[in-house]
Amino acid sequence: MSSPALHPKPPELEGMPIEQIAERCTARFRDRKADWDAFADARIEGYKRAQHRFIGAGGSGKHGDPTVIPAKNFTLSVMYVEPGQGNAAHTHEVEECFFVLKGHLDVFVEDEGGKRLTTRLGPWECISCPAGVIHGYQNDSLEPVYFQVMLGRAKPETMGYADEDLYKRRDAHLKAV
Q: Over the stretch 47-93, which tens digit does the pLDDT of each residue have?
């Protein structure tokens, strides 16, 4: 039995066969490439991690990636972080959510005075980091962690690092050959 769609399709999908829509909107983990150079701080010991992009580029700034599902209103990535690694304190202009899939992740939020509160997340737990709130994470466990990251905009800006030197070169990884 057929029924009418109650909401219009985006213009780029109008007239597209359902098979093509399904293909365009599917991303499999086996096809994702681990990007170990997705962020300006990813080359620094203590901040090494891999981004697996599914929908859009997340906070990496790699918006031209043809292998991902095109982002319309949010991004979705899966991060892989070894023990002892994490990321630098930063902000975004939009909300960011971390959802742990496997392992344990210590997520921190920080105020402008340097007061930091850390929360340990386990599998199937999440935290939402509001826009403009300094935050980050560290894998202080003994095993690698996989977690999902969502940002609330199709093409968010690169991360706004709290460290001034990192902030000045926040898009350096995009210019590397």
A: 999 999 999 999 999 998 999 999 999 999 999 999 999 999 999 99
156: tokens are 């968010």
Please answer whether residues 49 and 87 qualify as being in contact, where contact means their C-beta atoms are separated by less than 8 angstroms: yes
- List helix spans (H) across the chain: 18-24, 164-168, 172-175
Q: Structure tokens of 116?
A: 């930091």
Q: pLDDT tens across 67-79, in order?
A: 999 999 999 999 9
Closest CA to 96 of 133, 71, 143: 133
Contact 82, 102 (CB under 8 A): no
Token pair for residue 16? 């597209």
